[in-house]
What we know:
The structure holds three protein chains of three kinds. Chain B is of the alpha+beta class.
Amino acid sequence: MAQVKMTVNGKTASGEVEGRTLLAQFLRDDQGLTGTHVGCDTSQCGACVVHVNGEAVKSCTMLAVEANGATVDTIEGQANADGSLNVIQQAFQDHHGLQCGFCTPGMVMSASALLKENPKPTEAEVRHYLDGNICRCTGYHNIVKAIMAASGQDVSAIAAE
Amino acid sequence: MPKDGGIGASSKRREDVRFLTGNGNYTDDINKRGQAHVFFLRSDVAHGVLKSVDTAAAAAMDGVVQIFTGADFEAIGGMPCGWQVTDKNGEVMQEPKHPVLAHGKVRHVGEPIAAVVADTLAQARDAAEAIVVEIDDLPAVINMKNAVKEGATKVHDDLTSNLCYDWALGAENKDAVDAAFKNAAHVTTLELVNNRLVANPMEPRVALGDYNRSDDQHTLYTTSQNPHVIRLLMGAFVLGIPEHKLRVVAPDVGGGFGTKIFHYQEEAFCTFAAKACNRPVKWTSSRSEAFISDAHGRDHVSKIELALDADNNFTALRTDTYANMGAYLSTFAPSVPTWLHGILMAGNYKTPVIYVNVKAVFTNTVPVDAYRGAGRPEATYQLERLVDKAAHELKVDPIALRRQNFITEFPYATPVAVEYDTGDYVATMDKLEEISDLAGFAARRKASEAKGKLRGFGVNCYIEACGIAPSNLVGQLGARAGLYESATVRVNATGGLVVMTGSHSHGQGHETSFAQVVAEMIGIDENMIEIVHGDTSKVPMGMGTYGSRSIAVGGSAMVRATEKIIAKAKKIASHLLEASESDIELKDGAFSVAGTDKSVAWGDVTLAAYVPHNYPLEDIEPGLEETAFYDPSNFTYPSGAYACEVELDPETGQVTIERFSAADDFGNIINPMIVTGQVHGGLAQGIGQALLENCVYDDEGQLLSASYMDYAMPRASDLPMYDVDHSCQTPCTHNPLGVKGCGEAGAIGSPPSVVNAVLDAMRSGGHDIGHIDMPVSPSRVWAAMQKS
Amino acid sequence: MYNFDVEMPSTVADAVKAMARDEAQPMSGGQTLIPTLKARLAAPSVLVSLTGIDEMKGVCMDDAGRLCIGGATTHARVAAEAAAHYPALASLAARIGDPAVRNRGTIGGSIANNDPSACYPAGALGSGATITTNKREIAADDYFQGMFETALEEGEIVTEVKFPVPTAAHYEKFLQPASRFPLVAAYVAKFGDGVRVAITGASNNGVFRWGEAEAALGANFAADAVAGLAVDATDMISDLHGTAEYRAHLIGVMTKRAVAAIS
Lengths: 161, 788, 263
């Protein structure tokens, strides 16, 4: 067992983990942060995406010990300080970018990483960036639209309801 | 002007807030004090005699609580099948035993052989590796046509063959059908495969069993679309637990698509083991496990023939389908290729006589059951590919041939046992031609050709039977369950209310759309309404969500219960207003006396119901809570027309979807935003089936597409923005909301148009290949183009 | 996963020391190794994580004009920092997997694993790179020895990869639709003294140089030059996603397109 300590959503999180404990397991089982989901075991679905030191990573494909000392941000830390939805979360609700909600935390975390890197992505850039995030419900139309809207672009020309 | 609330408004979804902030409550998020974990040791061979399972070494390992094998379940019932099909000779289907843990034989890769309960999942898995299993391999039965040949290896030794049933619909028309083919001016024949799929909701299945010795109560938390169905099947048929001692909870569920309808062994095991081990027992499926334990979908091999007269009118249709059941009968498997498939073979066309034959076959593969659309995509795919092929053989426009044969008068009794109440297939086709910009296609094709690409346009129509369905009818057809829905409306003293619905939301947004309906009926704010579902201890006996039935059946039950509430509230209001009950009107959340300015607010009436100081106690009881069970008189029949436009790279065979247009008739619509989203998701799954997804076994019964490394899930970059329209609305005539359901249409309606478009593109490049099977992968397209 | 100890060395020397432990296995970004461990297809006693070794991270140009990439440098960092020096290689790195994978996966991990469908082996072989380990330097032509086979010895760690920068290069990739690894991809690099063509995804023997195409392109660097060349399908991979014949065909198409992109 190894002792790990990291900053998760601005708070200190520490615990004892096995070598094989994944960061996703540490967050879910030790820290009770169950917003981070696990949807596959081959590092493809992206439901587990969190930010480690500001970069999007798949927390099911990283050992907890590798995040020792790191700053980790999860879906639970994304809302505004007053508890209201942040710009990306609000755009997902406004544009119906989620249905069952299971892939949603990873989608929001990936979207946030994308917009940091590319503040005004094109539709093709958004789609390409989401290669590591699988959604089975929405057919992606409204996710792509939500992310473009969150970037401040006018999405009224994109077909909707 | 779009409405800002109530029926017809695109209200934002209230459930989104918890999902977007990581506060959803999915089954795997639930943990119980002292819980143990189970790991299932699963068969890695497809077929064999289970000689021995030695658990001695494993049982002594660290953390192991108890190990179970098939022998522990010998005295307990097996997994039940919920539908009994009667074959064309009046005999009931062959129904094999389906043990919780394998016993005697293993029959598919992934079948659970032993279950290890341990303190941690890792310990359980470590111990499972120490179990010594001896299996004498038998030849795997994989190919359906070989499986039903004389002398084939049997999947179940106690059955007479691998044929589950040989079913027919329209037997009384068989002679007329054969005669029509003899006299036909043209016959089009098509042989095709409807590829096996894996539903793949993003949340893998989870089961957590809990047992309370103080009151002998079992609780199962599970990823289910229908917790009451699980309670009934598991309680009555598997474990012998009466309903009042068994609670099933399906909290937030991360997508279902059919595969979470069924009762699975893992649910029964965790419920059983929680009592046996005296600890909560939890199972969380990995994605790899899901591929070999979730029921699969589709997997039909069909031959279909269409007879036409000299004027291109359809005169008869004949089908011959082999449907894969897998190794065991999953909960509703027998119904899918029969009553959810055969009855759709008329499609949108007035073909006078139809004969449908389906042979269901056991193989050494994972059980196959309903997946989004369930039988209806298979019917639509056959028919709409066939009609397209006929058009090209006859050198007529595929849209014109469809229009010529459309059913135009309603109600319409098909020759395959159902009566369509409403529809307007001309209107949806007109709308489709408009939104798909068919007129501009020629220019777009030219532009593609200038880049060295081929471009194709494909259409199809679809009809579906959903909102399933009348209990007395499905009972005659073999269902071992009723298909009504329930709702309780509980009004609180201060006017807020709770709707407890038997429908289950796993992405459909019921918490929002159901509230819109009740808000509209009473005239109160949607935020005063809470929708509760997914817990058998809170909700009256309900049948759950599948077959696009929630708003049509569950919504109707809720309307009926709300009507009862309003009726009683009017009585109370008439007392408070000292007016005749017949003069009371409810509008915008207030009761008034017609023709006067006397009124009383909704909240005053509800308060009176619970503080009945001034109350007609001699006439009515206090309280304001009503329950309704709604059993529809017919299926609903959503319909539509879809168009797909593809670009094809002739050098690589790569197909890209450039445009996809869908014109649907869902009858009345509660929340257009949610309906559009449902269509989007269905389209992605239909396009996925057509282009990407394929569940493949090798001859030894090993699953080749056993993870996302080989099973191609549609990604954002595989799909276009969709043009979706549902302005054509012919309301359903037999439910109070006039709704038809929208959940499956996209998946049912999209595969044929994709394939039709690909074939159109290939033809434009000089490759007239007649047919290509799904998924239309680059490799297949390229190979087909080499040969033609 | 079986359990294991994790060592987090901060220098190459410490990593080498840790690798001397019984059943030790180096792990870089872990984007392939962790899924493998989850499937219990590997059972190391000790995982030596290379992600904390700063001396193995970074992108720079050496005096010989080679682009040098530390073994523990992530794909994302290569995509960003190599763009000015060797755009084709940066573009290859920018298209591996998905963004989250690129933030963890490293060049050393990819090269050491030598998956027959990985991207970096094509870039390294196509560029004629030199693979530096804690022990020696190995020419790419000697390093890649077949599917998952390399010249690396037990305990040897890829510390750096040095890429000669061609006058022009392009990586053309056709995706396997499920895994998003290349079904077939071609790396074409044009140097003053010849052309190198490396193919990944196609062969049962892993990444390989397509000699006929190199000769044809050496004589005439034009897409048409490879148009008539046929690839023997005998040793090509055949699976759910494409037959051997299809892969052989795609080799020609991808190579042609790579050439077209830079000529």
